[in-house]
Amino acid sequence: MSRRAQLISAVVVSVAVVAAVALWTAAERLGSAATPEARTPAIDATVTPGITLREGAARRFEASGVSVGDPFPAVDVFDSEGRPFTTSRLKGRYTVLVSGCLT
Amino acid sequence: MFRDYAPKGVQFYYLYKSLAHWGDWGYVGPVTLEERLLHIQEAKRVLGTNIDWLSDTMSNDLKHAIGDASNSEYVVDPQGTIVRMRVWSDPDALREDLEVLVGPVEHRTTVADLGMKVEPPPPEAPTGLVPRVELRGAFHPLVAKAQVEKSRHPFYAKLRAAAQSELLTTGKGQLYLGYFLDPIYDVHWNNEAAPVAYEIAAPKAMSISPSKGLGPMVDAPADADPREFLLNVDRGTSVEPIRITLHYYACTDKWCIPVSQEYLISWQMDRDSGTQFGREIDPRTLETYPR
What we know:
Distance between the termini of chain A: 83 Å
Number of strands of chain A: 3
CATH architecture of the largest domain in chain B: Sandwich
Low-confidence stretches of chain B: 287-291
Order of helices and strands of chain B: HEHEHEEHHEEHEEEEEEEEE
Low-confidence stretches of chain A: 23-48
Radius of gyration of chain A: 31 Å
CATH topology of the largest domain in chain B: Immunoglobulin-like
Oligomer: heterodimer
Number of helices of chain B: 6
Strand content of chain B: 25-35%
Number of strands of chain B: 15
Distance between the termini of chain B: 41 Å
Strand content of chain A: 5-15%
């Protein structure tokens, strides 16, 4: 192929690539404008159901960053009369703490 | 365990946190600390225990700090260090722990020794009169904040809001609203007065249908069934919260008052709301919490 033919081929390919990119971008814009779902911010993209309640609880529990050997977290809560109580008071003797609720 | 080891100097606490199974036995989530303290009194009555209770904050700070589990268990040594922890309370394992850490007891108290009487939940007005709404597909509980400061009355009816998965992911889907009477107030719906009515204020970009609605007419003077609604929502481009107001009559056998109360619903899964058994996806079964 002559040098002139090579030059013409390169120009044609470049123009085709630029045109394709422009058309693809325009089509994407048109498509997103026509599809409300695509415009809607996805609040929840991480829902992956499928593990059991116990598995989920265990994973979260293990990932909590609290381990045997750590100080019990100091958190301000309340006693059963509504008076302030801090868990940093759980010292001086052995303490058993169990979480729960009515259900 | 308490009877055996409290005399040996071990202190015991129950931590009362958000409900694990919303609606079970009629109990619904408190919206104020005062209501949560009433739950503790109810738990003492129902369970008949002598163990001290602590109440988590309404934002569940301690629950979050110690692993978010519903029924976890910790043993803390005299220096304040965690020496045992497990995601589900296990009385047999706990007894073994205390035998190692504190020493064995001469006579192990059993549940039968205690003669405990588990009391029933409080009685309520008739139920089973209003058919429940059927939820199809996966629903997730949403953060619904009671606008307590705007009401002169307690929130006798508590809102459960849940979104269909598609509503969270694509912006279009169904929104479940369920109003449940709170048994701690011993009130009922008055079916001889106007039925409950809701109205929603939402951003203009959002479509909610129907944005107003009435509860059913019930062929009985009073009942305590939940008032449930299923709405079609198109959030459009909006992630703004919506305001929902419920108008109802809260009644006992002695008084009956009109009440209007507001909730602010965010398009965000409530990690502390537990689940309605069999009707929703429990946040605790997800790999990660939706944002």
